[in-house]
Amino acid sequence: MIVRISPKGSMEQLSQLEVARLKQNAQSELYQLYRNCSLAVLASGIKCDNSQKLFNQFEGFKINVLQKERGIKIELINPPTAAFVDGKIIASIQEHLFSVLRDIIYLNDIIYLNDKFAQLDHIDLTHSDHITNSVFDILRNAHAMPLFDPNIVVCWGGHSINNTEFQYTKAVGHELGLRELDICTGCGPGAMEGPMKGATVGHAKQQVNHARYIGLTEPNIIAAEPPNHIVNELVILPDIEKRLEAFVRLGHGFIIFPGGAGTTEELLYLLGILLHKDNQDLPFPLILTGPKESADYFTHVDAFIGATLGKEAQDKYQIIIDNPAEVAMIQKEGMETIKKFRKKIGDSYQYHWTLKINPEFQFPFQPTHENMAKLDLHFQSDKAKLAANLRQAFSGIVAGNVKMETVNSIEKQGPFQLKGDPKLMILMDTLLSAFVEQQRMKLAGTLYVPCYDITHGH
Amino acid sequence: MIVRISPKGSMEQLSQLEVARLKQNAQSELYQLYRNCSLAVLASGIKCDNSQKLFNQFEGFKINVLQKERGIKIELINPPTAAFVDGKIIASIQEHLFSVLRDIIYLNDIIYLNDKFAQLDHIDLTHSDHITNSVFDILRNAHAMPLFDPNIVVCWGGHSINNTEFQYTKAVGHELGLRELDICTGCGPGAMEGPMKGATVGHAKQQVNHARYIGLTEPNIIAAEPPNHIVNELVILPDIEKRLEAFVRLGHGFIIFPGGAGTTEELLYLLGILLHKDNQDLPFPLILTGPKESADYFTHVDAFIGATLGKEAQDKYQIIIDNPAEVAMIQKEGMETIKKFRKKIGDSYQYHWTLKINPEFQFPFQPTHENMAKLDLHFQSDKAKLAANLRQAFSGIVAGNVKMETVNSIEKQGPFQLKGDPKLMILMDTLLSAFVEQQRMKLAGTLYVPCYDITHGH
Amino acid sequence: MIVRISPKGSMEQLSQLEVARLKQNAQSELYQLYRNCSLAVLASGIKCDNSQKLFNQFEGFKINVLQKERGIKIELINPPTAAFVDGKIIASIQEHLFSVLRDIIYLNDIIYLNDKFAQLDHIDLTHSDHITNSVFDILRNAHAMPLFDPNIVVCWGGHSINNTEFQYTKAVGHELGLRELDICTGCGPGAMEGPMKGATVGHAKQQVNHARYIGLTEPNIIAAEPPNHIVNELVILPDIEKRLEAFVRLGHGFIIFPGGAGTTEELLYLLGILLHKDNQDLPFPLILTGPKESADYFTHVDAFIGATLGKEAQDKYQIIIDNPAEVAMIQKEGMETIKKFRKKIGDSYQYHWTLKINPEFQFPFQPTHENMAKLDLHFQSDKAKLAANLRQAFSGIVAGNVKMETVNSIEKQGPFQLKGDPKLMILMDTLLSAFVEQQRMKLAGTLYVPCYDITHGH
Amino acid sequence: MIVRISPKGSMEQLSQLEVARLKQNAQSELYQLYRNCSLAVLASGIKCDNSQKLFNQFEGFKINVLQKERGIKIELINPPTAAFVDGKIIASIQEHLFSVLRDIIYLNDIIYLNDKFAQLDHIDLTHSDHITNSVFDILRNAHAMPLFDPNIVVCWGGHSINNTEFQYTKAVGHELGLRELDICTGCGPGAMEGPMKGATVGHAKQQVNHARYIGLTEPNIIAAEPPNHIVNELVILPDIEKRLEAFVRLGHGFIIFPGGAGTTEELLYLLGILLHKDNQDLPFPLILTGPKESADYFTHVDAFIGATLGKEAQDKYQIIIDNPAEVAMIQKEGMETIKKFRKKIGDSYQYHWTLKINPEFQFPFQPTHENMAKLDLHFQSDKAKLAANLRQAFSGIVAGNVKMETVNSIEKQGPFQLKGDPKLMILMDTLLSAFVEQQRMKLAGTLYVPCYDITHGH
């Protein structure tokens, strides 16, 4: 089966050089990256969160970029049929395919640009600034920053939440949609899809014709969490840290639904940034919310934050149980506050330049046994520092749960050894045990074997 | 509480004369009509299908049309709060308010125009043609006929269907939306809302930004079946018969979900028209569909049609059980057939002029005891005539179930007496008993006392 | 030669009744009116200001309205070839053809509506109000009142001005265009085309993509002054008086270039209205302007106004010689004043309801010998009344110069006899003689024989 | 005087790095380039074709890029007042300012990208391909390639033509506009402005709301030939050769009006390319045209081409005297031919990839005395090669006439010495003498002293 797809969305013209670089070629890393991201998008209707299995199933899939009289076309050879309705590709998948193409080509360029610019400017830019500018460049190239007023609510949470929690994320999305707010998530199912689905109906009631459902992803995660079909703006960032930075600079309000270790990692990332002294006064609406059945979850998380990062950190968020309308109202009011604040200080409505992000939140953490064992898990007065270390610990646990490479190394070398202050160790142990009990560490129905040992002694 | 609303949608300017005519005035019929329709729209979020109760609850509601520098505004005094989100009116209600204003003003004019035109033209137009032209004028004035290709699927069915059936109407709507088809219904809840709700998500996946969710209603029904909030084009026709004509001339494809006596009336209306010899060759996709749990319902209905109107009538529709995708595919294919056919014969894509509708389907039937008793309910070779008579019988039963005036007259004079061919009487009795048993005649949980006696003797 | 034209612009759908009414039919007045207006539009590229000659030349021209699957088409039989470029109709003519169709159909209706509404409303509306509302209805039906801020400058002046004056009208138009003002004129050549042509380039420099070039005309004048090709909104009013009312209610600022008796009539119309006591405080930017070569013209006109209507009338306008930028700046500033004023009093930005127009300016004056002889041409304290009488006198002279019927009756009965106050008679004589001398009464090169005798005695 | 300008057009967001690079800084070459191009745009209303004088007059002019909450703003310090109407910047200048900003930033990047890509791809791309791709990148970044059908007519000719010729270029533009063709020129006055001005009225008649008036320029020429105010798409290419390549790849049809040595250079450029064997079959509508008063000019040019490049070259163009409509008709028909041809071979409608341009037409020619003396000016069988050499000769003469640096070196070292085949030398001499006689080498009224000696001997 061979299908040719015309562009839908923002990319329409490629140069001959760009097309040449994407030529189908078993040896070309760029082609493989492009092919795999495209396959992930095409397979997004298929229920399967195991990338390897997916890639095996569609081994015969190939993709070509063709230059035609009216611009480029994409040729798909043996694509998954789930991407089509009556033989016609679903429009959102069609657009996502061209978003992939746009971003893959751009990511290829940006790496070299960065180096060059530093030399060119002969000015004292820290590498941190370069990362921030690169994230900006990628988002701009994706037309992800139209000149609207502050309006984007980022929704985070687990991708395999239970049905009560899923219905709740839809209800929150509905209330956000009724207030004409746009939604930005990590692209996948669960708490990433629910708010978008709910917002769709809310936006319809408010006759918002050009609502934005932004999905931010990265090449390693797109296959496991493919963009749901409501996403109408897909952007692929080069790695997890740039994706996180894109979330916090592009988004205006933040909502965290229940999740597992990954969601805790994200919360720690946010708190670590917000605890930076330069960020003290920035308006930053952050709400933790879920249905009343999930109240316990937030009690555990809040207790952990209180005991480790203290009241100062707890003051950065509100917990709201079972009240979608209130969540949405607070976010809506937050938009006004942000608008006034940024206008006053002259920061952009579209990209939160002022937010200070320390390099330890920008550079990737490699979750090896060695790095995990070396983590400094002791109480300390620099709460931002502690948040950074804790984030790395949870990041390692997430990898140990799901990332193929890390899982393999745990099979060989045994669980990670986490050491630190005994009191802190007990706090972590308690929180993680609660997640295990609530079946948040693995898909429901499977037995969870922890990938870590927490050493309570000194 | 006083709120002023600016226009959203197609009406923006009124003349001073038009504004004067709508002046708040207890004696003015036009003002009362305008006020009540507006109230129905504003109360659409409130669960209540009893108009009288609704009107009592909002006795203090008043409405004024104001002329301002940028066009008109509507002033609402004591409106239902359910129409607002955080003090701001919901956009769809805002638009519906102005649709009401537009149509009330226009309906006021059209009555006089019709008479005048007949005299003016000195040409031999039957009154039937005048009705057809009036319906066209109203739809055109409402901008309900943009120059698109055939694309509108009319969905009919009960307003109080069970949850399984409701989910099914959503699933069908989703598949229609995936095929980029627009939805037209009678405005209210149940089978009128489900297809729109499902289509919203389907359209989002296909990135259809300007999908149409058309609601056709009339002044006497708008309070009982207020436009759901997904409706983005609301048109008020002057009476039930013109509303039915608007459905069949504006719509291209037709789907009937389970319902009660009212839905049967609608099916008989359609079949009566389609059996007209002039309409034999018109492509007219008509599908009866429901979930497998509702298969029995269609068995009964089909048996009744077969036994009364014969195979010729049965050939006019397909019954599809539990297959939303197939329903949508057939409708989609039907659009192509209609397009080719109308192009060939030079009929409009927007308004089905060619469809022949006999006057007995255009003039209203008054369901008095006398008229019901006089109905000619015998088998006859003119199947279209029989369909017209049966439709009037079911129309009377619907009125006897829900229309205040008719209910009162039954309380005084006892049930309607339906007489006719004994075999035909048994068929009707069987069908109606099945509806009673399936709780389709009244809202679930209430005991149904039939408003009719079927006399099986001669 | 047979050509079929698709709609461009606002009309796309007609009912079968409307199409039937326009059927080609030698006996049908409506068809003849429609045919002749359409022919005038089609012949607009041909230099010819003699309607009769034009109609003779294209005797074989016929027009049909066809109903097709995508709406109506217009079929032209033997149209003037000047309307086409390489066999394709010029877009502005195409749109004008559909404007004619739209307005002819509407004018046919409005006559009857007016009568009906009066009976219907049982309220005490003077006939004057009805006229004002009808003009509104026609403009609204033509979509001539989009919701913009005050922006329309009406330009009046002769249709056969000399080249220096024509270049000056272009220069003024250019400056108006640079200030993003829209232009409204009487449709034809000369001072009606120049400002539009100049504005086209001004708008291009300001990248105004949707500038409005509004042409207001009426059935008896459209053939003599066909819409120039820059007009992008053409509206046909039913008669001269409604056309004048449309100008003053739709327009915001007013510019009068040099002209003849007709332009004097228009000035007297404006001054007569502005002298009404209810209109004293209305902001109404009115400028008389021309190149320095035409300074004399304005000296004569101003002297006449001063001597007849007094300083009060002179205060209503400014005379600006040879300064296009200043003219445009004053108009631009006037828009702000009008905006604030109308906002304060709640009058529409689109239609100047508040402006009081007395019935003597709304009802047509029939220029018979008897009516002309009866005119009360004496000084009087009611300057508005005097202005009305003078306007009628000049109106009669215009008719005597160009209107076929009036010209004929003068040939038979001799010139009009104008009598009145000797001093006033001398003033009129002086002004008219200056016009004759400046060759403003007839096209250059033809000898002018006055159509009037001014009796200086009592 | 300090003014802040908001974006109009396609650029709205800059990164902090990009803003930093443009910081006002006397030492920064990039800032100086940016400032001077911006000044040229702002001074475009001032009649002055001497860049040095212009820069001296506005020595105090400075420009800053500011980052604000809604994107960037440009701050102008002491800008020329001619850029403003009533204190408000003219929209086209406003857009041109942001085009300059967009292109300066991009040109800065592109230089480095090119080098990098060559290394990156490890593929055998000639440098010629890189140039072609860079030109594409610049045009794409400027949004100069919307997905329209072939529609762009490039108009070339002198910038100081006489009034008869100027009126003729307007008449041709008017006919092109009537045929809904877009215009692309070199930005400046004369034959570059006339076709745009005429097209403006033609487009208005055809109600073309989004007509394109594309101006292509380069940093060294923008001050001498600033974009006229009708240009609504301005693109700055890095140098003359890339600008020429942009013309021939972006444009579809070509018209050459009378001009001097520069216009001859352009004609030789085109013929040199069209004579390449790979370009034999490409449809390429090329018309030389002027009013009947300029017929002689074309006789001389045609004779020169015939005698040097032969009939094969003469067959590449048509000469049309005094027939604007025919010129436009041929261009319009050419668009259809191009459309069909590119569709057949799969080349883009937007960018003429297939056109083969040899490196000698891509690399700049430095007009030193040495290079001029070395030129191989002999007849030869490779006509494309001869065209290239002749182009360089004329290019040198243009530089000797107007380019400050070259003029100076001629003052010091005397005129260029052109040597070659005696017959060829006589042909050049004859043509150039005709230009001198027709006052095409210098502005009217100044005496022309040739910058070259043609040596007729061997």
The percent of residues in helical segments of chain A reads 40-55%
The total beta strand count of chain A reads: 14
What profile does the largest beta sheet of chain A have? 7 strands, parallel
Sheet with the most strands: spatial strand order of chain A: 9-8-7-6-10-11-12
N- to C-terminal distance of chain A? 62 Å
What number is the mean pLDDT of chain A?
88
Domain Pyrimidine/purine nucleotide 5'-monophosphate nucleosidase C-terminal (chains A, B, C, D): 335-454
Keywords (chains A, B, C, D): Glycosidase, Hydrolase
Pfam family, one (chains A, B, C, D): PpnN_C
Catalytic activity (chains A, B, C, D): AMP + H2O = D-ribose 5-phosphate + adenine
Would you give an account of this structure?
- 4 copies of one chain form a homotetramer.
- Chain A is of the alpha/beta class and 458 residues long.
- Among the domains of chain A are: 2-106, 2-Layer Sandwich (MCP/YpsA-like); 360-455, no CATH class.
- Chain A contains 16 helices and 14 strands.
- In chain A, the strands form 4 sheets. Chain A has a 7-stranded parallel beta sheet, with helices on both faces.
- In chain A, α6 (163-178) packs parallel to α7 (194-205) and α6 (163-178) crosses α12 (324-345).
- The N and C termini of chain A lie far apart (62 Å).
- At the B-C interface, α1, α4, α5 and α12 of B face α1, α4, α5 and α12 of C.
